[in-house]
Design brief:
The complex is a heterodimer of chains A (255) and B (305).
Chain A lengths: L2 H14 L2 H30 L15 H24 L4 H6 L1 H6 L5 H34 L5 H28 L3 H17 L6 H4 L3 H12 L7 H24 L3
Helix pairs in contact in A: 1-6, 2-3, 2-6, 3-6, 3-7, 3-8, 3-10, 6-7, 6-11, 7-8, 7-10, 7-11, 10-11
Chain B lengths: L3 E10 L2 E11 L4 E5 L6 H8 L7 E6 L2 E2 L4 H7 E4 L11 H11 L4 H14 L15 H13 L5 E5 L7 H14 L4 E5 L3 H7 L2 E6 L2 E7 H7 L4 E6 L6 H6 L4 E7 L2 E6 L2 H14 L4 E7 L3 H8 L3
Parallel strand pairs in B: 3-8, 3-9, 6-7, 7-8
Antiparallel strand pairs in B: 1-2, 1-4, 4-5, 9-10, 11-13, 11-14, 12-13
Classes of the chains: A mainly alpha (255), B alpha/beta (305).
Chain lengths: 255, 305
């Protein structure tokens, strides 16, 4: 299979291109935005509005668990956008430059070629998601109030399949689109469709789509009851299908 | 057992048929020149043989292995150099070589010694720690050659290996191909016929997706032994080519500046009549000679250009 030399190359590439630094850093920044915003909201409103002197702005802080859960909203938009942007050129870019031809005339199976990329970018997504949520939880604890770390950890783990799905869709699109930009565009459209459409497709599908998973993860973090089985299975299944489809396309593809 | 076989290979892109039952057999050893005009199917054939493309029909083997069903085993036995090879530019030359060695499962010591041997041989040892992104075009071509040789391939596929190089780079790569003759079988496509003539002892000429000629250089010269008449004028005469072409004993005329290379349908008549015809056309003859046909003459005759 030759997946290990390919994986070591992918990890080296993530490090040398500073993606391994900047993507987790971006998630950390996104994570700490939520508690900082809530803490600073009264001051921000006071300085931004034209209130008479002596006016008091009294906005009650939401429960700490809710603040941490709201970070997932940031990851769902900007976080996923960042992941799609970094993964979109993984195959399409190498094919366009010709380096894929150099590699794929060596004893490297196309499954190993795509699999190594999926593992490397999946690890990047997991590390980024965990660090981003850790930042959100820590700053919420410091600025807002005590949080339940076990609930936060469970919610984080529950949410990670959504990030893996974004990576899988970007890689899948990267195999069949000619340019990285087109791959990124179609990948993002795929993420949006998967987040919007399934909720209108009946109760069964609506319980197993990325939005349902975000909801379950939010409930877990906020200490409420949640049912993760269907959304986790559904999202991971779609991510796996995206990778299998990417592999099937790549296997028949002319390089 | 032949080293490379193509049996009735076809390849279709939409309505365009790139290969139309391409068939040839190549024995191991030496250098095989793979020639043809643009769009003849040279690159398509090499891409199928190296596993980068899939044939629409027919069968191809390398070292007895089917390129479609035993692709992994084929790839472990071949080396491939593209016309403009691409690399991971953030890696150094040495790092890239060691990584390629790991794809062939070479152990650490063998990988290091083979990398050193090849980088020294290709004149890249001094630049081994530099990022490939900073290499010149010629250095990248040499690195491409080095990585293609790391596994001591049974067949080295070279797709237009010198066409993107300056004269010095071309000279270096051709010398290396010459040196490699005893180590591996080289299958080289090229537009530069003089280069093929210099390093290859066997030639396959393809045209419109089919093999037009497959022969040793010596056989080829015997088959197309008709001499070529060289007519050099003091200046280019715009009407002379058409005048010569119209002569009944002339089968083809090629012009390079004031020099006309005339292929004769009837050599005896041409020998007698050609100088007379040139002078009758009002041209001033500077030099007149009879030469053995070059590969380019043969190529043009075969592909009907």
């Amino acid at each position: 299979m030759n997946i290990m030399p390919m994986l070591s190359k992918e990890l080296k590439e993530l490090a040398r291109s500073y993606k391994l630094l900047f993507v987790p850093l971006a998630f950390v920044l996104l994570g700490l935005t939520q508690p900082v915003t809530y803490k600073m909201l009264p001051q921000l409103m006071k300085s931004a509005s034209n209130l008479p002197p002596g006016a008091v702005i009294d906005i009650p802080l939401p429960p700490a668990g809710d603040v941490v859960a709201m970070a997932l909203g940031q990851f769902n938009q900007l976080g996923i956008l960042i992941l799609v942007l970094v993964a979109m050129g993984a195959v399409a870019g190498e094919r366009a430059t010709g380096v894929a031809a150099t590699v794929l005339t060596k004893p490297v199976g196309r499954g190993a070629y795509l699999g190594a990329k999926a593992i490397a970018y999946g690890l990047l997504a997991v590390v980024s998601g965990v660090l981003g949520m850790a930042a959100a939880a820590y700053y919420t604890q410091v600025l807002i109030g005590a949080i339940n770390w076990t609930d936060a950890a469970v919610g984080t783990v529950l949410y990670l399949p959504n990030l893996l799905l974004a990576v899988a869709l970007a890689l899948c699109c990267s195999t069949f689109m000619k340019t990285p930009l087109a791959a990124g565009g179609v990948g993002l459209a795929g993420v949006v469709v998967l987040n919007m459409v399934p909720k209108y497709l009946g109760k069964f599908v609506a319980g197993a789509y990325p939005g349902a998973l975000t909801e379950a993860a939010s409930k877990a973090i906020a200490g409420q009851e949640f049912a993760p089985g269907r959304p986790v299975t559904g999202v991971l299944l779609v991510a796996l299908l995206a990778l299998v489809a990417g592999w099937a396309v790549l296997k028949r593809q002319e390089i | 057992m032949p080293l490379i076989t193509c049996e009735g290979l076809t390849k279709t892109y939409g309505s365009f048929q790139a290969l139309r039952g391409l068939t040839f057999t190549a024995e191991g050893g030496g250098c095989i020149g793979f020639l043809g005009p643009n769009g003849a199917g040279k690159t398509t054939t090499i891409r199928i043989l190296t596993g980068l493309a899939h044939a629409s029909g027919g069968r191809a083997t390398v070292d007895g292995l089917d390129v479609a069903t035993q692709a992994d085993q084929v790839r472990s036995r071949i080396g491939y150099l593209a016309q403009s090879p691409a690399f991971y530019n953030y890696m150094s030359g040495q790092e890239f070589m060691l990584w390629v060695a790991s794809l062939f499962h070479l152990d650490g010591r063998t990988a290091r010694s083979r990398t050193e041997e090849l980088l020294k041989r290709l004149g890249l040892w001094e630049a081994r720690r530099r990022a490939i992104g900073g290499y010149s075009g010629g250095m990248k071509q040499r690195l491409g050659m080095a990585q293609a040789l790391i596994n001591r391939p049974k067949v080295l596929f070279l797709d237009e290996p010198v066409s993107a190089l300056d004269p010095v780079g071309r000279h270096e790569i051709l010398n290396l191909i010459d040196e490699l003759r005893g180590e591996t079988t080289i299958f080289m496509s090229s537009h530069v016929l003089a280069d093929v003539e210099r390093v290859c002892e066997r030639v396959i000429i393809v045209n419109s997706g089919q093999v037009a000629v497959e022969a040793n250089m010596a056989e080829l010269r015997d088959t197309y032994a008709s001499p070529v008449f060289t007519v050099e004028l003091d200046a280019h005469d715009p009407d002379l080519r058409a005048s010569l072409q119209a002569l009944p004993f002339v089968s083809g005329v090629r012009r390079e500046g004031p020099v006309y290379r005339v292929a004769a349908a009837d050599v005896a008549v041409a020998r007698r009549e050609l100088p007379r015809a040139v002078l009758a056309a009002g041209a001033t003859l500077v030099r007149y000679g009879v030469e053995a046909p070059t590969l380019e003459d043969i190529f043009l005759k075969v592909v009907g250009a």
